[in-house]
Amino acid sequence: MANLSTIKISERGLLELLNEDVLAFNSYREKYAHPINLNHVDLSGWDLYGVNFAGVSLWNASLLRCDLREASLMDANLTGANLTYATLWDADLEDAMLVGTCLYGADLRTANLKGVKLDGACLGKAIFTAEQLMEIALGLRLQIRERPSDQEQRPYLLPSNLTRDLEED
To answer: What CATH number has the domain bearing residue 146?
Structure first.
């Protein structure tokens, strides 16, 4: 068997490895730390339980109905990605870029959302805890607005003011 730490696998090879064995993919990530670009890939319905996507670029990727429980998505770029009905229990999304991401119906109840960027994200029917919503809003005034689409109205989370409201003494 080849030593994975000395091989740079192509995007297609990474997807094949990921499809076959998430643990082998994670092992490769730990041993060979080059930037991984999985932009525009379709991983819809994949079982990605425990996957290490920390720092991975998944720009405009489709993760529709994916099982991302206990996944590491720290510092991942999910700009414009589709996470509709994805399960993200215990996922670590700290400092992830979710700008314009569709989280419609996604279950994020036990996910770490510290520092996530959700500008323009579709949050319709997404499941959050009150604590998570407070964490997201901390230091940033946010508003929900309706943005029309061809199919339906979906709520989008947008910054209403990028500066903190500080009370003067």
So the answer is: 2.160.20.80
C-alpha gyration radius of the chain: 17
DSSP secondary structure letters along 90-150: T-B-TT-B-TT-B-TT-B-TT-B-TT-B-TTEE-TT-B--HHHHHHHHTTSEEEEEEEE-S
Domain extent for 146: 38-169
Given a contact cutoff of 8 angstroms between Cβ atoms, the answer to whether 74 and 55 are in contact is yes
Count of domains forming the chain: 1
163 DSSP assignment:
S
Burial class (CB in 10 A: 0-12, 13-18, 19+), 12: exposed
> For the chain, first and last CA: distance in Å?
67
Q: What is the pTM of this model?
A: 0.76
**Is 106 inside a domain boundary?**
yes
Rounded CA-CA distance 29/70 in Å is 16
Tell me the pLDDT band of 140, cut-offs 50, 70 and 90: low
* Residue pLDDT, tens place only, 116-134: 999 899 999 999 998 888 8
User: How many Cβ atoms from other residues are within 10 Å of residue 145's Cβ?
Assistant: 10
At 79, the amino acid letter reads T
Calpha distance 167→27 (Å, rounded): 49
